Every structure is written in C-alpha cells, then in structure tokens.
Amino acid sequence: MTPRQRATVPTLPNNREGVKSLSPHSWSVFKLNLLEQPYRIFSLSDSSITIDFGSVIDEAVNTRVAQLLDYCKENPFVGFSEAVPAYASLTVFYDVIQVRNAYADSPTAYALVENYLVEALNKLNIATSTSPNLIEIPVIYNGEDIAFVAEHHQLSIEEVIQIHSAATYRVYMMGFLPGFAYLGGMDARIATPRRASPRTSVPAGSVGIAGRQTGIYPLASPGGWQLIGHTNTPLFDMNAQPPTLLKAGDLVRFVRVI
Fold first, then answer.
1. What is the dihedral of CA 160, 166, 172, 174, to 10 degrees?
2. CATH number for the domain including 115?
3. Between β-strands 199-202 and 251-256, what pairing exists: parallel, antiparallel or unpaired?
4. Of 37, 48, 122, which is closest to residue 79 (Cα–Cα)?
5. Entry pTM
6. What's the DSSP call for residue 20?
7. Which of 125, 154, 179 marks a domain boundary?
8. Model pLDDT, residue 249
9. Domain check: are 110 and 187 in the same one?
C-alpha cells in the first residue's frame, strides 16, 4: 500500500471473543540475575511506600516488579490495601492504623512494610517458572499518522505495518487511562516522537506510537501519539471482571486485518 492509498475498512470483532490468548511454550522460564540489582525503598506518603529499581526500561527488572506484585497479592500483610506497578518500581498502599494495631512490636507502620518488601525480595526465586499471557489483537493499519511515520523513517507504509505487526510487545505498566497499557519492545526503525500538537480527541481503539512505545487508546481522549491504526477490541469494560483486558507483564501481538 502506497502513502496515497487508503486501506479498506473490513469488519473487526467488537468484543473480547475476537482476541486470542495464547500460552506458548517459548515463554516458560525467566532467569533473573537481580540479587545485585540496586534498589531503594522510600516513603511516598503517610500510607504508601515505593521500592524502586532505577530509571530503566528492562524486561528482567519489570519481571521482578511483577513478581513482587504477585507476592503482595498472594501474601498480604494486615492492613495491605493495594500495590501499583510501574516500569521499574512498585508502590504499596496500606492502612496505617490497621498495621499499627496488628504489628504493635514494629516501631512504625512504615518500618513494618519496608521489612515486608525486603523479605519478599529475599524469598523470590531467581529462576521463576511463569507463562505470561500472550494476547493477539486485530488491527486495521489505517491511522491518520501512518504516512508521516513512514516518511519520517524513509520507509513505505507497508514496511511500517510489517515492522509494527512483527514484534511481540510487553505490557510494562498500566496508566494514563483505565485499560491503557504502555507497550515496550518496539523496533527502533519506527520509533517516532509524539505529535508537536496533541489532538483534542483521539477515538477509542486508536493504535499509536510515541518514541519506542506503542499502545491503544481504550477510551476517547486527548492525546499526542502518532496514530497508525485502529482496533475494535475493547480494552476496558467496567462491567467485566477483570475490567481491563491487559495487565502488567502480559505480552501483546498485533495481527493485521486486511
């Protein structure tokens, strides 16, 4: 397809039945070497604490964050509220009064949760068997900015599509909007800066590029990512359980629809 051609718009699945969730044998074991990975633990507020592994975008570090998240959910301390993962950090929220009442021997609630996180790191296995979900999402590559992305990199539109749909992406973190996944692992050949002037409204289902990241707008909203395609697959449904299709640690592959 040349830059002047417009893709025809076929019918896409409009529900989650149109998405394939796979568990390939190739994702069987992550071998981590993070015992020496530097980290710091600090108070984010009176009732939250963060463990941070640095300003990195690294699959092994993000996997360790996901392991800590799972540990907190499976082995919560009294007073635990929730844990929120990011690229290289995990923030744990807790009820100070419940923690103090349950662990009177601890000098402070913060000290108790800090010790909990350190012990969790020590208990996590370096070789952890895991089978992350691989989600296939159908995409029509007819975005308003796909010609710009192609021209920016001196590629054809067809080459941009092939490069974008060939990769397997990792959900490093959720944020910005309910159900919005920040996907890492995009080929540097199509890494493109955000638009100089963000759009006031980006349609739900728009697939975009921003730097080395790609993602899907789950809801209509303002946004500055370069739009290269569209999917009808819902990323967020407040009546579903869970309400978001993707979560941190999942793998995503885009399947071209012609």
1. 70
2. 3.30.1360.40
3. unpaired
4. 48
5. 0.72
6. E
7. 125
8. 87
9. no
Question: Is pLDDT of 103 > 90?
Answer: yes
Total length of the chain: 258
Q: How far apart are the first and last CA of the chain?
A: 11
Q: Give yes or no for residue 206 having a pLDDT over 90.
A: yes
All residues at 6 or more sequence positions from 82 whose CB lies less than 8 Å from its CB, including other chains:
92, 93
- The answer to whether residues 64 and 53 touch, using CB atoms and an 8 Å cutoff, is yes
Residue 199 is part of a domain; what is its CATH number?
A: 2.40.100.10
Residue 49, strand partner residues: 43, 92
On whether residue 65 sits in a domain, the answer given is: yes
Pairing of strands 251-256, 134-139: parallel
**pLDDT tens column, 69-97:** 989 999 999 999 999 999 899 999 999 99
Which two structure tokens, joined as six digits, stand for 13? 């699945």
So what's the pLDDT on residue 123?
84
Domain that holds residue 247: 134-256
> Domain boundary residue among 71, 90, 125?
125
